[in-house]
Design brief:
Blueprint (H helix, E strand, L loop, with lengths): L16 H28 L42 H7 L17 H19 L3 H21 L3 H8 L7 H15 L22 E11 L5 E2 L5 E4 L5 E4 L18 E14 L7 E7 L9 E4 L5 E4 L4 E3 L2 E3 L1
Helix pairs in contact: 2-3, 3-4
């Protein structure tokens, strides 16, 4: 008895054997036509452009001897530097201002000294350029080696600079008073001491104590200035308010700007800030203080040349109840 093989079932979307044979035949025909076209062009003398991209030999780039980098330094004198910040500027921002407050060069002499000093400045700059802990650790080691090399070449030179241009020491009693002020105003002790920035022209007395995040300030005759909690409202040892931080900028008209770049916007009528006062609420609350509510002189809002706000004048006082004016 004759038997027949069962037909294999095809999956959905799978081409049949006839379709596969047709596709193979079509591909062979297309290949044959392309080959015939190439032979015809060759017989006619027509050159077919190559698919490979033409390349030209690049000239070897040579560094200009006057181009500044960490090794080839450029002496800049009697004019403003144009372009990216130099290693000296980056080192200055890294906290080495006292090394750049000297008149003239630190020392004159051999090329060895110039090399040692350049290495020292670049090492300080590399600390500011570090992007992670590993890079910072390596930069600090490089800084230490450069410092030792200078000390070996000119013993006592760096000590002389530090003694003449030493930064003022932190007043321990001032920090204690700032902590006491914070505890009085917010009802909770300070957990840590941090460094902050004040606007140019501000002259706080002693250490600053945080009052809260500044939200808005209202000046007489002007709309509310919205700070969105970016800067911090603080006070100094003389109970004068300051705005710390620089993540904002106020655009003033500039009509009343004095030669130093400061402009008085007028009297401050309201100050709004957010703070957590443990002795009052114990959670973040938005406080709005009306200045001059008790008949006192209102402080003025002053904008410096950087667009940062200063609180000047006024006979207000700051107690555990808040700002009283």
């Amino acid at each position: 008895m004759a038997t027949t093989k069962d037909k294999k079932k095809r999956k959905p979307g799978e081409p049949s054997p006839a379709q596969l044979r047709a596709r193979k035949k079509f591909a062979a025909m297309a290949k044959a036509r392309a080959k015939a076209a190439r032979l015809a062009k060759k017989a006619a003398g027509i050159k077919t452009p190559s698919k490979k991209r033409a390349t030209t030999a690049k000239p070897t780039k040579r560094r200009n001897s006057l181009e500044p980098d960490r090794i080839h330094t450029t002496k800049v004198r009697q004019h403003w530097r144009v372009g990216p910040e130099s290693a000296w500027k980056r080192a200055e921002k890294a906290g080495q201002q006292r090394l750049f407050a000297m008149n003239g060069k630190p020392a004159s002499g051999s090329e060895e000294w110039e090399r040692l000093w350049a290495n020292y400045v670049n090492a300080i700059a590399s600390v500011g350029d570090a992007k992670n802990k590993g890079q910072r650790r390596a930069a600090l080691m490089r800084w230490g080696k450069a410092e030792k090399a200078i000390e070996k070449h000119s013993p006592g030179f760096l000590d002389q600079i530090r003694a003449s241009e030493r930064a003022p020491k932190t007043n321990g009693s001032g920090i204690k008073k700032a902590k006491a002020q914070r505890k009085e105003f917010l009802g909770s002790p300070a957990r840590k001491v941090v460094s902050t920035t004040v606007p140019k022209g501000a002259k706080p007395k002693g250490a600053l104590s945080k009052m809260g995040r500044l939200m808005r300030v209202k000046v007489k005759g002007r709309s509310w200035m919205d700070f969105q909690g970016v800067p911090t409202l603080a006070r100094d040892a003389k109970n004068k308010m300051f705005i710390t931080g620089n993540g904002y900028k106020i655009t003033a008209k500039g009509k009343k700007r004095n030669p130093d770049g400061f402009e008085d916007l007028g009297e401050i009528t309201h100050i709004e800030y957010v703070a957590t006062k443990a002795h009052l609420d114990g959670y973040p609350v938005t406080y709005v203080h009306a200045m001059g509510e008790e008949g006192g002189a209102k402080p003025h809002a002053v904008v410096n040349s950087d667009g940062l706000l200063l609180i000047e004048g006024g006979d207000y006082t700051i107690t555990s109840r808040g700002i009283e004016n």
